[in-house]
Amino acid sequence: MQDIKSPISKVASVLKIRSEGMGLRATGRVLGIHKNTISKWERLFGDQKETLMLYSFCHEFVSLVFEGDELYTVVNNRIDASASEGWTAVIMERSSRFIVDQRCGTKDATLFESVMSTVYEYLSRTGDLFFFSDGERRYDNTLFAFCAQALHNGKPGRPPKTLPRGVKVRVKNKGDQNHKSGPKRKKYQAPHKEHPETNQELNESEIHANHVEANNAAMRRRNSTFRRRTNTYAKTTSGLQRTLDMYWVIHNFIRTYWTTGQVPAVAMGILCAPLAIEDILMMQK
Questions:
Q1: What CATH code is carried by the domain that includes residue 74?
Q2: Domains in the chain, number
Q3: Terminus of the chain with fewer CB atoms < 10 Å: N or C?
Q4: Is the pLDDT of residue 182 over 80?
Q5: Closest CA to 255 of 10, 7, 9, 21
Q6: 1 lies in some domain
Protein backbone atom coordinates (compact mmCIF):
# COMPACT_ATOMS: atom_id res chain seq x y z
CA MET A 1 0.00 0.00 0.00
CA GLN A 2 3.01 2.31 -0.11
CA ASP A 3 2.25 5.46 -2.15
CA ILE A 4 -1.32 4.26 -2.84
CA LYS A 5 -3.85 6.94 -1.89
CA SER A 6 -6.98 4.81 -2.31
CA PRO A 7 -8.48 3.15 0.80
CA ILE A 8 -7.29 -0.39 1.39
CA SER A 9 -10.90 -1.62 1.40
CA LYS A 10 -11.36 -0.28 -2.14
CA VAL A 11 -8.20 -1.98 -3.41
CA ALA A 12 -9.27 -5.25 -1.79
CA SER A 13 -12.73 -5.04 -3.39
CA VAL A 14 -11.21 -4.52 -6.84
CA LEU A 15 -8.89 -7.51 -6.47
CA LYS A 16 -11.77 -9.67 -5.23
CA ILE A 17 -13.92 -8.75 -8.23
CA ARG A 18 -11.04 -9.42 -10.63
CA SER A 19 -10.39 -12.81 -9.02
CA GLU A 20 -13.96 -13.86 -9.79
CA GLY A 21 -13.55 -13.48 -13.55
CA MET A 22 -14.56 -9.92 -14.43
CA GLY A 23 -12.39 -8.38 -17.14
CA LEU A 24 -9.94 -5.56 -16.58
CA ARG A 25 -11.80 -2.92 -18.59
CA ALA A 26 -15.20 -4.07 -17.30
CA THR A 27 -14.03 -3.70 -13.71
CA GLY A 28 -12.77 -0.22 -14.48
CA ARG A 29 -16.10 0.80 -16.03
CA VAL A 30 -18.18 -0.56 -13.16
CA LEU A 31 -16.07 0.97 -10.37
CA GLY A 32 -14.95 4.11 -12.17
CA ILE A 33 -11.23 3.31 -11.95
CA HIS A 34 -8.73 3.55 -14.78
CA LYS A 35 -7.55 0.19 -16.07
CA ASN A 36 -3.89 1.15 -15.61
CA THR A 37 -4.54 1.81 -11.92
CA ILE A 38 -6.09 -1.65 -11.54
CA SER A 39 -3.13 -3.21 -13.37
CA LYS A 40 -0.75 -1.48 -10.98
CA TRP A 41 -2.63 -2.77 -7.93
CA GLU A 42 -2.62 -6.30 -9.36
CA ARG A 43 1.11 -6.13 -10.07
CA LEU A 44 1.92 -4.97 -6.53
CA PHE A 45 -0.36 -7.66 -5.10
CA GLY A 46 1.17 -10.38 -7.30
CA ASP A 47 4.69 -9.29 -6.31
CA GLN A 48 4.01 -10.80 -2.89
CA LYS A 49 4.19 -14.25 -4.50
CA GLU A 50 7.93 -14.57 -3.85
CA THR A 51 7.50 -13.55 -0.21
CA LEU A 52 4.66 -16.02 0.38
CA MET A 53 6.51 -18.80 -1.45
CA LEU A 54 9.21 -18.65 1.23
CA TYR A 55 6.65 -19.97 3.73
CA SER A 56 6.43 -23.29 1.88
CA PHE A 57 10.22 -23.54 1.53
CA CYS A 58 10.64 -23.23 5.31
CA HIS A 59 8.68 -26.42 6.06
CA GLU A 60 9.56 -30.11 5.98
CA PHE A 61 7.09 -32.53 4.38
CA VAL A 62 6.71 -36.29 4.79
CA SER A 63 5.35 -36.91 1.30
CA LEU A 64 4.27 -34.73 -1.61
CA VAL A 65 2.33 -35.64 -4.76
CA PHE A 66 2.60 -33.17 -7.63
CA GLU A 67 0.52 -33.05 -10.79
CA GLY A 68 1.61 -31.17 -13.91
CA ASP A 69 -0.53 -29.94 -16.78
CA GLU A 70 -0.82 -27.03 -19.23
CA LEU A 71 -3.59 -24.75 -20.41
CA TYR A 72 -3.63 -22.38 -23.35
CA THR A 73 -4.91 -18.93 -24.21
CA VAL A 74 -4.33 -16.36 -26.93
CA VAL A 75 -1.83 -13.53 -26.42
CA ASN A 76 -1.96 -10.43 -28.61
CA ASN A 77 -2.84 -12.05 -31.97
CA ARG A 78 -4.17 -15.41 -33.06
CA ILE A 79 -1.28 -17.50 -34.35
CA ASP A 80 -0.50 -21.19 -34.43
CA ALA A 81 -0.73 -22.67 -30.94
CA SER A 82 2.77 -24.16 -31.17
CA ALA A 83 4.27 -20.66 -31.54
CA SER A 84 1.98 -18.84 -29.11
CA GLU A 85 3.18 -17.32 -25.83
CA GLY A 86 -0.12 -18.11 -24.13
CA TRP A 87 0.83 -21.53 -22.75
CA THR A 88 0.69 -21.82 -18.95
CA ALA A 89 2.39 -24.70 -17.13
CA VAL A 90 0.75 -25.47 -13.77
CA ILE A 91 2.10 -27.63 -10.94
CA MET A 92 -0.31 -28.56 -8.12
CA GLU A 93 0.11 -30.53 -4.90
CA ARG A 94 -2.65 -33.13 -4.87
CA SER A 95 -3.92 -33.49 -1.29
CA SER A 96 -3.97 -29.79 -0.39
CA ARG A 97 -4.67 -28.39 -3.90
CA PHE A 98 -1.76 -26.00 -3.33
CA ILE A 99 -0.54 -24.51 -6.63
CA VAL A 100 3.21 -24.95 -6.43
CA ASP A 101 3.90 -22.70 -9.40
CA GLN A 102 2.41 -21.54 -12.68
CA ARG A 103 4.28 -19.76 -15.46
CA CYS A 104 3.31 -18.62 -18.93
CA GLY A 105 5.28 -18.38 -22.17
CA THR A 106 6.09 -20.33 -25.30
CA LYS A 107 5.77 -24.08 -24.94
CA ASP A 108 9.49 -24.80 -24.93
CA ALA A 109 12.24 -25.95 -22.56
CA THR A 110 12.47 -22.55 -20.85
CA LEU A 111 8.85 -22.68 -19.70
CA PHE A 112 9.20 -26.15 -18.19
CA GLU A 113 12.52 -25.30 -16.55
CA SER A 114 10.92 -22.32 -14.80
CA VAL A 115 8.18 -24.38 -13.11
CA MET A 116 10.27 -27.51 -12.46
CA SER A 117 12.94 -25.44 -10.71
CA THR A 118 10.31 -24.76 -8.04
CA VAL A 119 9.57 -28.49 -7.77
CA TYR A 120 13.29 -29.08 -7.38
CA GLU A 121 13.25 -26.82 -4.30
CA TYR A 122 10.94 -29.31 -2.56
CA LEU A 123 13.23 -32.32 -3.13
CA SER A 124 15.37 -31.59 -0.07
CA ARG A 125 12.29 -30.92 2.08
CA THR A 126 10.39 -34.16 1.66
CA GLY A 127 11.07 -37.86 2.12
CA ASP A 128 8.97 -39.04 -0.85
CA LEU A 129 8.04 -37.04 -3.91
CA PHE A 130 5.66 -38.22 -6.62
CA PHE A 131 5.22 -36.39 -9.92
CA PHE A 132 2.49 -37.26 -12.42
CA SER A 133 2.21 -35.78 -15.90
CA ASP A 134 -0.66 -36.21 -18.32
CA GLY A 135 1.44 -36.98 -21.40
CA GLU A 136 3.92 -34.08 -21.42
CA ARG A 137 7.41 -35.59 -21.14
CA ARG A 138 9.34 -32.35 -20.78
CA TYR A 139 8.39 -32.18 -17.10
CA ASP A 140 10.26 -35.36 -16.21
CA ASN A 141 13.13 -34.64 -18.60
CA THR A 142 13.73 -31.29 -16.92
CA LEU A 143 13.45 -32.76 -13.43
CA PHE A 144 15.90 -35.52 -14.33
CA ALA A 145 18.36 -32.94 -15.65
CA PHE A 146 18.08 -31.01 -12.36
CA CYS A 147 18.45 -33.82 -9.83
CA ALA A 148 19.83 -36.98 -11.49
CA GLN A 149 22.57 -38.65 -9.44
CA ALA A 150 25.16 -41.28 -10.29
CA LEU A 151 24.47 -44.75 -8.88
CA HIS A 152 27.77 -46.28 -7.73
CA ASN A 153 27.20 -50.04 -7.80
CA GLY A 154 30.83 -51.22 -7.86
CA LYS A 155 30.66 -52.38 -11.48
CA PRO A 156 33.21 -51.21 -14.06
CA GLY A 157 32.32 -48.43 -16.45
CA ARG A 158 30.47 -45.19 -16.06
CA PRO A 159 27.86 -45.39 -13.25
CA PRO A 160 24.27 -45.03 -14.49
CA LYS A 161 22.23 -41.99 -13.51
CA THR A 162 18.97 -42.35 -11.61
CA LEU A 163 16.44 -40.13 -9.91
CA PRO A 164 17.17 -39.45 -6.21
CA ARG A 165 15.95 -41.91 -3.62
CA GLY A 166 12.24 -41.51 -2.91
CA VAL A 167 11.43 -39.65 -6.15
CA LYS A 168 8.96 -41.30 -8.53
CA VAL A 169 7.79 -39.95 -11.89
CA ARG A 170 4.98 -41.38 -14.03
CA VAL A 171 3.80 -40.16 -17.44
CA LYS A 172 0.61 -41.12 -19.23
CA ASN A 173 1.12 -42.41 -22.76
CA LYS A 174 -1.27 -40.51 -24.99
CA GLY A 175 -2.64 -41.85 -28.24
CA ASP A 176 -3.89 -45.26 -29.31
CA GLN A 177 -2.78 -47.95 -26.88
CA ASN A 178 -3.86 -50.78 -29.20
CA HIS A 179 -2.07 -49.77 -32.38
CA LYS A 180 -1.42 -52.68 -34.70
CA SER A 181 2.25 -52.13 -35.51
CA GLY A 182 4.78 -52.82 -32.78
CA PRO A 183 4.32 -53.93 -29.18
CA LYS A 184 1.45 -52.62 -27.10
CA ARG A 185 2.46 -49.64 -25.00
CA LYS A 186 1.72 -49.39 -21.32
CA LYS A 187 -0.81 -46.80 -20.27
CA TYR A 188 1.62 -45.32 -17.74
CA GLN A 189 5.37 -45.19 -17.99
CA ALA A 190 8.36 -44.40 -15.77
CA PRO A 191 10.36 -42.30 -18.27
CA HIS A 192 13.63 -42.41 -16.32
CA LYS A 193 15.45 -44.94 -14.21
CA GLU A 194 14.65 -44.66 -10.52
CA HIS A 195 16.78 -45.40 -7.48
CA PRO A 196 16.72 -49.12 -6.55
CA GLU A 197 15.81 -48.27 -2.94
CA THR A 198 12.76 -46.28 -4.00
CA ASN A 199 9.47 -47.97 -3.12
CA GLN A 200 7.79 -48.94 -6.40
CA GLU A 201 4.35 -49.79 -4.96
CA LEU A 202 2.02 -47.46 -6.85
CA ASN A 203 -1.49 -48.23 -8.04
CA GLU A 204 -2.35 -47.18 -11.58
CA SER A 205 -5.57 -45.62 -10.31
CA GLU A 206 -3.44 -43.08 -8.43
CA ILE A 207 -1.57 -41.97 -11.56
CA HIS A 208 -3.54 -39.08 -12.99
CA ALA A 209 -3.63 -35.29 -13.18
CA ASN A 210 -7.36 -34.89 -12.60
CA HIS A 211 -7.02 -32.34 -9.81
CA VAL A 212 -4.89 -29.88 -11.75
CA GLU A 213 -7.20 -30.31 -14.76
CA ALA A 214 -10.17 -29.37 -12.57
CA ASN A 215 -8.21 -26.32 -11.40
CA ASN A 216 -7.59 -25.37 -15.04
CA ALA A 217 -11.35 -25.38 -15.63
CA ALA A 218 -11.85 -23.13 -12.61
CA MET A 219 -9.10 -20.80 -13.81
CA ARG A 220 -10.89 -20.34 -17.13
CA ARG A 221 -13.91 -19.09 -15.17
CA ARG A 222 -12.04 -16.89 -12.70
CA ASN A 223 -9.23 -15.47 -14.83
CA SER A 224 -10.60 -13.23 -17.58
CA THR A 225 -7.51 -13.72 -19.79
CA PHE A 226 -8.59 -17.35 -20.33
CA ARG A 227 -12.21 -16.55 -21.18
CA ARG A 228 -13.44 -17.32 -24.69
CA ARG A 229 -15.79 -14.35 -25.11
CA THR A 230 -13.29 -12.10 -26.93
CA ASN A 231 -10.89 -12.51 -29.83
CA THR A 232 -7.88 -11.37 -27.82
CA TYR A 233 -7.67 -12.76 -24.30
CA ALA A 234 -4.36 -11.23 -23.14
CA LYS A 235 -2.47 -8.31 -24.65
CA THR A 236 1.02 -9.26 -23.45
CA THR A 237 2.76 -12.14 -21.71
CA SER A 238 3.64 -9.89 -18.77
CA GLY A 239 -0.03 -9.02 -18.34
CA LEU A 240 -0.98 -12.70 -18.41
CA GLN A 241 1.70 -13.51 -15.83
CA ARG A 242 0.41 -10.67 -13.65
CA THR A 243 -3.02 -12.27 -13.49
CA LEU A 244 -1.48 -15.69 -12.84
CA ASP A 245 0.51 -14.35 -9.87
CA MET A 246 -2.59 -12.73 -8.43
CA TYR A 247 -4.54 -15.96 -8.90
CA TRP A 248 -1.71 -17.92 -7.22
CA VAL A 249 -1.81 -15.74 -4.09
CA ILE A 250 -5.60 -15.75 -3.75
CA HIS A 251 -5.97 -19.47 -4.49
CA ASN A 252 -3.26 -20.64 -2.08
CA PHE A 253 -3.62 -18.27 0.86
CA ILE A 254 -7.09 -16.68 0.79
CA ARG A 255 -9.81 -18.68 -0.97
CA THR A 256 -11.28 -21.83 0.61
CA TYR A 257 -11.15 -24.77 -1.79
CA TRP A 258 -14.63 -26.22 -2.17
CA THR A 259 -13.55 -29.90 -2.15
CA THR A 260 -11.29 -29.89 0.91
CA GLY A 261 -13.11 -27.11 2.77
CA GLN A 262 -9.76 -25.50 3.60
CA VAL A 263 -7.43 -22.88 2.21
CA PRO A 264 -4.66 -24.84 0.37
CA ALA A 265 -1.83 -23.26 2.42
CA VAL A 266 -3.60 -24.33 5.63
CA ALA A 267 -4.28 -27.83 4.30
CA MET A 268 -0.61 -28.19 3.36
CA GLY A 269 0.49 -27.09 6.85
CA ILE A 270 2.21 -23.88 5.75
CA LEU A 271 -0.16 -21.61 7.71
CA CYS A 272 -2.37 -22.12 10.75
CA ALA A 273 -5.10 -19.79 9.48
CA PRO A 274 -5.98 -18.26 6.11
CA LEU A 275 -5.00 -14.72 5.21
CA ALA A 276 -7.19 -11.86 4.00
CA ILE A 277 -6.52 -9.64 1.01
CA GLU A 278 -5.96 -6.73 3.37
CA ASP A 279 -3.32 -8.71 5.28
CA ILE A 280 -1.33 -9.39 2.12
CA LEU A 281 -1.65 -5.79 0.92
CA MET A 282 0.02 -4.60 4.13
CA MET A 283 2.84 -7.16 4.04
CA GLN A 284 6.41 -5.98 3.51
CA LYS A 285 8.44 -7.64 0.76
A1: 3.30.420
A2: 1
A3: C
A4: no
A5: 21
A6: no
